[in-house]
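Review form for a predicted model. The reviewer records the input and the model, then writes brief findings.
Reviewer: anonymous (R2)
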Amino acid sequence: MLSMFDSEKLKLIRESERLNVKQTAEMVGINYVTYHGYESGKAKMSLESAMKFFKHSRFRKYRDWFMFDETDPATGQIAPVLARSTQDETTSPR
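Model under review:
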């Protein structure tokens, strides 16, 4: 399996949480323009920003998937719903 770029992964995480870029940046305390740069691939996420992002309770569950392309549902480490190759019970009623 080919690894995705960090920018694509950040976007999948955000979309899985049904947030926009502004909401996400404000939630984790990263400047909007800076965070937008990470998602658009114009800037590489710094370690400090990654720590802010993945320390947030809403995004912690995606840490192993983002960093290592690994999941472990037993420990709460999952992939974003939109990143799954099959749609099962994760389909939203919207």
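Findings: Residues 85-94 have pLDDT under 50 and may be disordered.
Further findings: The chain has one domain: 6-83.
Recommendation: see findings above.
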